[in-house]
Every structure is written in structure tokens, then in C-alpha cells.
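Data deposition worksheet. Section B asks for the primary sequence of the deposited chain exactly as it was used as input, without tags or linkers unless they were present during the calculation. Section C holds the resulting structure in C-alpha cell form. Section D is free text for depositor observations; keep each observation to a single sentence. Incomplete worksheets are returned to the depositor.
Section A, Depositor: J.P.
Section B:
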Amino acid sequence: MRHCPLALVFSMLAGIAPLAAFAANPADEDLIKRGEYLAKVGDCAACHTAENGAAFAGGFPMLTPIGRIYSSNITPDAETGIGTWSFEDFSNGVRKGTSKRGYTLYPAMPYPSYSRLTDDDTRALYAYFMHGVAPVKSPNRKSDIHWPLSVRFPLSIWRVVFAPKPQPFVKGQGTAEIERGAYLVEGLGHCGACHTPRALTMQEKALDDRDNTLYLSGGFVVDDWMVPSLRNENGGGLAQWTVADIVALLKEGRNQNTATFGGMNDVIVHSTQYMTDADLNAIALYLKQLSPHDTKAKPYQRDDTVAKALYNGVASGRGAQLYVDRCAGCHRSDGAGYAKAFPALAGNPMLQTDGQAAIRIVLAGGAQPATDTAPSTLTMAPYAAIMNDEQIADVVSFIQTSWGNQGPSVTARQVAKLRKSIVPLPVPAQ
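Section C:
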């Protein structure tokens, strides 16, 4: 089950369905096909398809701070889906966060980001969901939120105060490619929903890069993952990545430096791997021109002291010994890993942060997503049942402070706290 803070963003609309049976003429088919692509850009399948459920029939559970909610049926079924919705109804739901019945949607639907969608793109999405998706009769599930928190009226106040009115995307951010990247990131991509810090009232502190550097600066915790910065900054950001590095990660879930993990795997599998090279390149160019929010972080500089010691059989301290026994076989004694197979640890942006992500991966394990261009699924087994809190703290601290990494050491107490909430990946049968 995916956990979702109140204003977090996972919902949308996506999937693949036969087009010919619904298209009335070639022009309509082109519009539907464009809507299908845009739905993938928006990662629409992530929330509106339950595990082992029919495509877009809803029922996907999301755990918020006030209880569990379930995604809605967005197939064109007239009784239980959106089959009777007009374009205006659909546009209001996507861009304003209001349903046909007039109530406000839970902000798990990222309508603050979708408010930036153009009329043309919204119409293409509408065409796809009304004529390119098979109708499924599946009643929507009521939320598990108890009264009085289940009352939706406060949501309308939140929407008025914190969600912007739909407006055309603001141009003037650079070249045509950079503007395209900004539109995709701020709008359908809704990247800020996870990668922008939030206020106590759970709204994103910024919805774009204009006049601030908070946008996409990371620091928000999603499913116990500390989300990294997407800005062109040192530390946990993208300063040391090229445009090609960013494109590779979005297309394959891995690059020469690292691999995706956690919720980002779903984004790769359902969304970005299907994007055109032109759109991926536009996104990368946009991200690379974002000025740093953290101006104090120093550039990563490799230090070979530890690598030389391990190569010569000198493993000083329990953290180093555990690394040699458990990790070096894949990630190597120099922390360089094996490109696009086992991620590099030396210089990895994740390891320049607070250590929460590293602890979680060691505890629960990790898996690189299988994509069309990189079909191999490479899995790291979980160590939750093999190593105690002190051992995991030692090895994570070693990794975070070796080869020039600038992350802090971690404590057994931090490990124990995360251990309570993680669900280890299943270990393959021998």
C-alpha cells in the first residue's frame, strides 16, 4: 500500500486501451492518442488502478494523516465512473479540484499542479478518458475517515486558500525547450508535489520557480523517504549530473551514477519511460537551469583513502568490516559500483543527505525498475532480518562518510524508528 500525506499527490488518470473501437474519425483518433500520451506523462495510472484491478476503475488505497482514502473510478462508465461528465465537469475536477456533484476532491489529487494545464491538453485528456478507455462498472469506495474529519467542507476552504485558479502556463522562462520542460514539470508531471517542501497546512511552499528557490528543493518525507532536491545544486541535488544523466534516469530508472528507488520507481514504470526523448531532454534542461537553494553545500570531491585501505585488506571499524562482507561484492571497495547494474555509492546524491534513504534501503532492500529500454530487474535483498540496528547504523555511517561523501553518520535509534514502518522486499526463493 502506498502511504500519502493529506496534500500529497499521487492520483491521476492513465493506461492503455484500444482506440479504434471508440474513434469516430482520424481527427478524433489523433486527439485520443495525444490524450493517452499526456495521461502517461501525468503518471495517471499510479492511483486510479488498484492492485490486480481493472484499469482506471479506482479503489487504490492511500493512507493520509486522517485516515485511508480510495481513488475513484475514472472510466467512462455512466453509473459508477465519469461517463456522464461533460468537458466542463472534467476540467473542474482536474484543474480546480471539484467533482461534478460540487464537493472538493481530497488534495491527494494534485490539482494545484494540474491547474497549469492548457485547454488543449485538458481536452485531449478528456477525449482519451471518455473514448479511449474501456468503461468498467465498479462503485467507488467510501473513505475510512471518521466524522468529523470526514466532512469535506474544510477541504473547500483549503482549496480556495492554497490551490491556484486555473490559468495558462506562464511563459518567458527561457528557450522553447526550457519552457516546454517547465510546463511538463510544473503541470502534468506534478514534480513539486513530492520534491517541494510543504507548510504545516500541507500545501506546497511554491508551485513554480519564479521569485523563489524553494520549488523542487526537496526535504519532504514521503513513505519514510526523504525526497531529494531536483535543483542544480550540490549536496543532494543535480549539480554533478549532466542533461544526459537526467534523461537516462527518467527513461531507464538508472544512469552511470545511481538508480531510482521507492516511489520514484512507479513514476519511471508508469510515466517517464514512455515520454519522448524531446520531452525528457526539455525536462532535464529546465532542471539544470534552476539556481541552487542550498548555497552552502560543497561540490563532491572524491577521496581515495578508504578505497585504498579496503583494497589492501585494511577494514578499520565495524562499519568498514560490514561493508566488505555485505556490500563490496556489488558496490566495490572503491564505492564505484558497476554502471547501470549496481549503483555507485561514491558521490551518490542520496548519500549527501540525512541518511534516512540509506537506512531504509538497507533495511527493506531495493529493486531497480524494469523498463522497455532496460528490462532487467536488479534487486538488493533486505537486511532487516540479518543485521541489528547497531550494525545497520555502523555500515550506513561508513557509506555516508567514505570516498568523499558528505552525509552525516546515523544512529541505531534512527534505524530502530524506521524499522517499525518498513516492509522488506520478499527474498527470492533459492
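Section D:
The first strand starts at residue 2 and ends at 3.
Residues 26-41 form the longest helix (16 residues).
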